[in-house]
Design a protein that fits this description.
The protein is of the alpha/beta class and 311 residues long. It contains 16 helices and nine strands. Strands 1, 2, 3, 4, 5, 6, 7, 8 and 9 form a nine-stranded parallel β-sheet that branches. α4 packs parallel to α7, α7 runs parallel beside α9 and α11 crosses α12.
Length: 311
């Protein structure tokens, strides 16, 4: 495994969730790489203040990647140049970044309607242009996140293998795959056959994403050949999931789940960091709500079904 990959448990970029405080407590628990929430590259290069505030990497730890949403190579070039300049001038927002990621997996109808995210996967020429720019001009290790296509038709055409071929040829540092289509429901099962096909054709590390909610589900994806797994909503309000999974992967044993006092300590740690660095109100209020539910032992919130609806 390339040294930049920072281990096998990654915290997924999540809108309204992945701020510095949350990334830090997840890293404390064992998340080896974390990400900002997805950022629109066009807004970044325009200097949009709200967008810039999402790049809240004020400290070198936790290891953090930035995930960009982009569909034009000119915008990507400007965004990469901006990040490079920030690194060279030691602008903490960018000089503390570890990885640059492009998102072609977000199933949001809004994203798809404007021709971004998974709507880009069938545009092979444009994808090759973007990934070539990423590989040549990124100042940091870089990779992409994809789905199997926009819909079943694209999946049957195996668009994902054409994208993988480009990534292989360019030598991207990794590819993260959520092995479902953008049209699939949140509870639709992942396609293990397609994931294994991707892994068998890959010349670069493959990261797995989707339904990783405990040690056994992480182990299944790693055993399939993924180099790391990306954990999303199952971590919300429960950063301890990383230590729970790591213990299972290392020893084969399940440890006792976190209790209300553990959640209270995690909330106190989060709140301290959020206050110190002036986190955006949307993050603070969301995490406060989630941790309060955990501290109260809300079993409905804990249920696997509710968690899986968010993954």
């Amino acid at each position: 495994m390339n040294k930049f990959l920072f281990g096998r448990l990654w915290l997924s970029p999540m809108e309204g969730v992945s701020d510095l405080g949350f990334r830090t407590i997840c890293n404390d628990s064992g998340a080896s790489l974390t990400f900002t929430e997805m950022i629109r590259a066009s807004s970044l290069v325009q200097g949009n203040k709200a967008t810039l505030s999402l790049v809240d990497t004020f400290t070198h730890s936790p290891p953090t990647g930035i995930q960009l949403l982009v569909n034009k190579k000119e915008i990507l070039q400007k965004a990469l140049a901006m990040i490079r300049e920030g690194i060279e001038t030691k602008d903490g927002r960018f000089s503390n970044l570890s990885v640059i990621d492009l998102n072609f997996g977000c199933p949001s109808p809004e994203i798809i309607q404007i021709g971004q995210g998974p709507a880009m996967l069938k545009r092979i020429t444009r994808m090759k242009e973007l990934l070539t720019v990423l590989r040549k001009e990124s100042p940091l290790p870089c990779g992409i996140k994809i789905r199997l296509g926009l819909n079943d038709r694209e999946k049957k055409e195996k668009i994902y293998l054409r994208i993988l071929e480009i990534a292989n040829d360019l030598g991207l540092d990794y590819l993260t795959v959520h092995p479902k289509t953008a049209a699939d429901s949140s509870l639709a099962p992942i396609d293990w056959k397609a994931l294994e096909e991707i892994i068998s054709h890959a010349k670069i590390p493959i990261m797995g994403n989707g339904f990783v909610v405990d040690g056994p589900s992480a182990r299944k994806m790693l055993d399939a050949g993924c180099k790391a797994v990306m954990i999303a909503r199952a971590s919300v309000g429960n950063p301890h999931i990383f230590s729970e999974i790591e213990t299972f992967l290392t020893t084969g044993r399940k440890i006792a789940p976190a209790n209300p006092s553990d959640y209270q300590a995690a909330w106190k740690r989060y709140s301290s960091i959020a206050t110190r660095y002036g986190t955006n109100k949307k993050y603070y209020e969301y995490h406060q709500k989630m941790f309060e539910l955990r501290m109260k032992g809300d079993q409905g919130y804990h249920s696997p079904l509710r968690i899986l609806k968010w993954v």
